[in-house]
Design a protein that fits this description.
By secondary structure, this protein is mainly α. The chain has helices at 3-32, 36-62, 82-109, 113-156. α1 (3-32) runs antiparallel to α2, α1 (3-32) runs antiparallel to α3 and α3 (82-109) runs antiparallel to α4. The structure holds hydroxy diiron-OXO moiety.
């Protein structure tokens, strides 16, 4: 495997672990909101990211390359809301997509057709990753509107009661 591609694969596998840390930190924040379902959802996302990293690690080894694990920057642990965490996540996934696309570009440049085939899985996965977060954001926004709708109904039941004489 070309050294340039090996280095780029290593960079991405480390970024996948960094992604896992980001979602683990989000799960911790969401636990403080009492949203157990979303906490569990982010824990699954954390596990997915570790599996993405693992898939890269196995591939680099399979190709006779050398895995090089780096240190990681601290993830953000504080967020404004669940929606804030979800919007940050979507932006993060867009960055991952940009990086995967760049990896694919390198694989084409060095004419590594096996790597092109391998990377296609990540290209497809990123479509799903972005879609997952986009749909969740839409749902959270809809639920908020629905909540306001119900409160509006309740508040609308108030009637004028004249002062008793
Ligand atoms: Fe590994 O796709 Fe998300 O970050």
């Amino acid at each position: 495997m070309e050294k340039q591609l090996e280095a780029a694969l290593n960079e991405q596998l480390n970024f996948e672990i960094e992604s896992a840390h980001i979602y683990l930190a989000m799960a911790g924040y969401i636990a403080t909101l009492g949203l157990e379902g979303f906490e569990s959802w982010f824990m699954v996302q954390y596990e997915e990211e570790i599996s993405h990293a693992r898939k890269f690690i196995d591939y680099v080894n399979e190709r006779g390359g050398r895995v090089n694990i780096k240190g990681f920057i601290d993830p953000e642990n504080e967020f404004k809301s669940l929606l804030d965490a979800l919007e940050i996540s979507l932006n993060h996934e867009k960055e991952v997509t940009r990086r995967i696309n760049n990896l694919m570009r390198i694989a084409y440049e060095v004419h590594d057709y096996a790597a092109i085939s391998f990377l296609q899985w990540y290209i497809d996965e990123q479509v799903e990753e972005e879609d997952n977060f986009t749909k969740l954001i839409d749902k959270v926004k809809l639920v908020k509107d629905a909540g306001l709708y119900h409160l509006d109904k309740e508040v609308g039941l108030r009637v004028f009661v004249p002062i008793a004489k």
